[in-house]
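Fill in residues.
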């Protein structure tokens, strides 16, 4: 009877350990993704500042439609097009379109 209780303990413990390892992995990956995202945003800010300082304008060919839509006042379509072209999130796309409309 003593062996059966040990078997049940192991049966219960295994899913718990797997669950805890899974949660730890998810939290670690999410944390790293947030740090990398923050670094990328910082680099983009610096690049934008340098381009503005040197009065350079860089337009990617695939973003020409985004610029045209934003300058025409169709911000929603511009955000959608930006997300399709770059794979960016909603906030990043909105900020990019805002920068375009601000620089009209």
């Amino acid at each position: 009877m003593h062996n059966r209780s040990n078997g049940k303990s192991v049966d219960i413990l295994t899913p718990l350990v797997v669950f805890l390892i899974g949660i730890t992995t998810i939290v670690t990956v999410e944390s790293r993704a947030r740090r990398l995202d923050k670094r990328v945003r910082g680099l983009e800010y610096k690049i934008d500042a340098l381009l503005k300082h040197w009065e350079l304008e860089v337009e990617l060919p695939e973003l020409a439609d985004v610029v045209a839509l934003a300058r025409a006042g169709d911000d929603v379509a511009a955000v959608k097009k930006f997300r399709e072209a770059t794979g960016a999130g909603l906030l990043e796309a909105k900020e990019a379109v805002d920068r375009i409309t601000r620089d009209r």
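Residues 51 and 57 are 7 Å apart (CA to CA).
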